[in-house]
Specification:
275 residues; mainly beta; Jelly Rolls; 8-stranded antiparallel β-sheet; 1% helix
Length: 275
């Protein structure tokens, strides 16, 4: 059973969908992307790479500092082997920051379907273990919808699951000059779970009309899709954040371990972008 909290981030827009998030109401709502009568596996990465260089033929790594989080992120923090990828936290000064971690995103774009990632959290508070979809900052303004970010899960050790939806086109400024934008965030804490010990499945069914979020293929959130409509890459990232829990030296050497990423399409529909 999970305890549910609703987090509505500062915005000058009306929040998407319902205000409440009643996870129990969705207890019987599940998804089975392996049902071949309903779904087609359109793309997958099982991370069977021999080297990081092989991985980076398919993925792109961040290499540099960050102003919004406590760590810089580098390709050297991405470890490959044994059919998994590890994004590793290290206590080291680099890029003007005291911690390093890893972040990567696909070279190709995707649009609509069921997106699923099987991974474990880094085993320390203060870590943000993320699976998400976001338009690239350097791409032209989408022809339909807005620049967007869908955080399928921003997971915090040991058992918190958070999903967020961001509109990155319509930016406003407060009187002090700080920027604000539309965002809708909701989170749940799962009793008696430790997401760092075992793999779990985090998923999103993304259609032109809806965004449906899943944990272990059970629905936990459903929202109207108002602006997330253009092709975008899949992102995997680990970060150190003040709001993800206490930051201690126990973070050093911990890692987010990823088994696979898969993208499914509804049967008889094949419009997945190939760029």
């Amino acid at each position: 059973m999970c305890k549910v909290a609703v987090l509505s981030l500062t915005s000058f827009f009306v929040l998407i969908g319902s205000v409440g998030w009643l996870a129990d109401a969705f207890a019987q709502s599940t998804i089975d992307p392996e049902d071949k009568e309903k779904w087609t596996l359109a793309w997958e990465d099982n991370f069977d790479y021999q080297t990081r260089a092989d991985l980076l033929k398919v993925w792109v790594s961040q290499n540099g500092p960050n102003s919004h989080i406590i760590c810089s992120r580098w390709e050297e923090n991405i470890e490959v082997g044994g059919g998994v990828v590890r994004l590793v936290n290290r206590k080291e000064s680099r890029g003007g920051q005291d911690w390093t971690s890893g972040s990567m995103w696909t070279k190709r774009n995707f649009q609509y379907g069921y997106f699923e990632c099987r991974y474990k959290y880094a085993a320390a508070t203060g870590t943000n273990n993320s699976f998400w979809i976001m338009t690239r900052q350097g791409d032209p303004e989408p022809k339909i919808g807005k620049r967007f970010e869908i955080d399928i899960n921003e997971g915090h050790y040991p058992n918190k699951v958070s999903s967020n939806i961001h509109n990155w086109t319509d930016i406003a400024h407060r009187a002090d000059g700080t920027r604000i934008h539309f965002s809708s965030g909701k989170s749940a804490t799962f009793d008696n779970y430790d997401f760092s010990k075992d793999y779990h499945l985090f998923g999103l069914e993304w259609t032109e009309d809806e965004l449906v979020f899943y944990v272990d293929r059970k629905e936990i959130r459903r929202e109207k899709n108002s602006f997330c409509m253009s092709p975008a890459p899949v992102w995997l990232s680990l970060a150190i954040l003040a709001w993800a829990g206490e930051i201690t030296d126990r973070i050093d050497g911990t890692y987010m371990e990823i088994d696979y990423v898969r993208v499914y399409e509804p049967k008889a529909k094949s419009n997945l972008p190939t760029d």
